[in-house]
Amino acid sequence: xxxxxxxxxxxxxxxxxTIAIMIYGQYGRTGxxxxxxxxxxxxxxxxxxxVHTVKQxxxxxxxxxxxxxxxxxxxxxxxxxxxxDSFLHRQDRAYTVAQCQGFARDAGLxxxxxxxxxxxxxxxxxxxxxEFYRKVNAMPEESIWQFMELYNGTLxxxxxxxxxxxxxxxxxxxxxxxEAFMDYVPV
Length: 187
Hints:
Number of strands: 4
Order of helices and strands: HEHHHHEHEHHE
Structural class: alpha+beta
Largest sheet: 4 strands, mixed
């Protein structure tokens, strides 16, 4: 119950506090869920022999299998506990950008920002000279985030921060609409 959990955390959050969240991304883990289902069909658990079967399976999958990109991007495939967590996990669930936004809203909290904003904005991924970029950049910010998740297609996790809605936005939002940002010191 992500909303219930977030409400509980929000109830003990200090007024100027921040909750940092990481949840799995639905689209970037598509191949993971395919393999989880495959291993469930095989009746695998989390034994040493089952982990060995996962390793053999990964080594024998076709190069074009959907999971290959995920395996290359993540460290979890490099050690046994990571393989268990990725492929033999019984309760993991993944979410979309829109669901992340909904969790914050439904829990009565404010969405602050993504940890890696470059993944959710077109400037870092699209050619700014193309009409395509201008159309995307003209959308509302939350729609841009959803669009970029679909455009990228590889986000295996979403990491973001939330806070109390009463917190002054100026305490956490970097404003680039004026020249004042030239005095910002990166952290």
